[in-house]
Amino acid sequence: MVDLLEVVVSMLCHEVSFSGVRHSEWLAFGFFVWLVGASWVRGLPSVNRWQITLGGLLMCVAMVVVARLAPPFVRDWAPGPYILVGYFLSGRLFASPTLSMERWLAAWDARLLGNPATRFLRWPRWLLAYLEVVYMGCFLLVPAGLVALVWTGHEALANRFWTMVVAAEFGAFAPLAIVQTRPPWALEPGVRLRDDGVHRVATSFVQHGTIGANTFPSGHVAGSLAVALAVIGTLPWLGVVLLVAAASISVACVVGRYHYVVDVAAGAVMALGIWAAVAWSGV
């Protein structure tokens, strides 16, 4: 396995010049190498380990091919599938919850919210429904941000956009190799909200369409805020709209019990840190 990783890294370094590799591609490549390495360090079931290993190595090879041979348009959009595959592969790392971390996260929620299951019971039905819908549509913000840049003639900023978004998303997924917790909805009694029907749909979506593990920091918050920050300097009007959407998603994460408050705060801090680092580096 180590020999194969060395071959893939060698391919990337020798077949693609360093000047031609995008920052977002390096970040994605490093993340999948991290996943493969972590799968052999943690005590995982054999099937999980090999799923991560084969999937991660295939993604590394695919990224080498795309970086070497694909036209710019394909490279501009390729990080989207990288993030999606990385998310589901990272879920295969989950072995057993870190109970002390779960208790710490839950304690902060209790300190800040009281009883989270009933804390938002009296919020207006329309507001709760809006938050649930925005939360479920979070994944649409990423392509929307890039479409806006390309549509307005700023496709040259694709690498900068993806550098921020890839760093935010993979920065949320990578800690699953070390700290593993279950989301609030898996531990708390049924959340009572006035938009019960919409909440049931959102809960079903989360239970059956996600990895079922809690990401710390929150990938929803980090990713959506990174998209807004990547766009706002070039398209201020759209950036403001995306900031409102990111703020709504942050609130929805807590209200629907999809994330702990600390997850949300950590996701926001990480996205802001990435934005500052990218601005400082001049990417």
What does this protein structure show overall?
The chain has two domains: 1-95, no CATH class; 97-283, Vanadium-containing Chloroperoxidase, domain 1 (Up-down Bundle). Helix content is 72%, strand content 0%. It has 14 helices and no strands. The protein starts with a helix and ends with a helix. The model is unreliable at 11-18 (pLDDT under 50).
Short description, anyone?
The chain has 283 residues and is mainly α. It has helices spanning 2-15, 23-41, 46-69, 72-77, 79-91, 99-113, 125-136, 141-151, 158-173, 184-187, 196-209, 219-232, 236-255, 261-281.
Detail the topology: elements first, then pairings.
Elements: H1 2-15, H2 23-41, H3 46-69, H4 72-77, H5 79-91, H6 99-113, H7 125-136, H8 141-151, H9 158-173, H10 184-187, H11 196-209, H12 219-232, H13 236-255, H14 261-281
Helix pairs in contact: 1-3, 2-3, 2-5, 2-9, 3-5, 5-9, 7-11, 7-13, 8-12, 9-12, 9-14, 12-13, 12-14
- Taking pLDDT < 50 over at least 5 consecutive residues as the criterion, the unreliable ranges are 11-18
- Total beta-strand segments: 0
CATH class division of the largest domain: Mainly Alpha
Give the ordered list of helices and strands. HHHHHHHHHHHHHH
Into which percent range does the helicity of residues fall?
A: over 70%
- Shape annotation: globular
- As for the CATH topology of the largest domain, it is Vanadium-containing Chloroperoxidase, domain 1
Mean pLDDT: 89
Number of helices: 14
Rg, rounded, reads 19 Å
Can you tell me the CATH architecture of the largest domain? Up-down Bundle
How many structural domains are formed by the residues? 2
The biggest beta sheet, please?
none
**What is the structural class?**
mainly alpha
> DSSP strand (E) fraction?
under 5%
What is the end-to-end distance? 33 Å
